[in-house]
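Researcher: Here's a chain I'd like modeled. Treat it as a single chain, no partners, no ligands.
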Amino acid sequence: MNNESDPGNQYQKDFEDSIQYGVSFDNVNLRTVSFWIVLGIIIVAIILYGVYNMYTYNQFLSSQQAAIEAEFHELEEMRERDQERLHSVSMVDEEEGRYRIPIDSAMTLIVRQHTNDNQE
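Model: Modeled as a single isolated chain. Structure tokens:
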């Protein structure tokens, strides 16, 4: 009987080889391991890139929304101020005797003035 075909002999040879290597000998395919490591790194890089782009896009949308809301408030304040000026009575220049009157009153006075001018 051949000593190498005996399973006990094979285990003894593997044991001796393990002692020689210092650890249990493992036949690892380095190309396969390298491939999976590189593929894993690429996938993680793609995920990080996607997350970063989503973050920057979300920041852009937030800043754009904040700008729109700020502009809306400014416009609303301007409209309120203009409405107050159009519908209130106040003194513009005391020395020249200039007053601000409501827009409706001013239009009525202008129409009366043009009507009187056309009648003459």
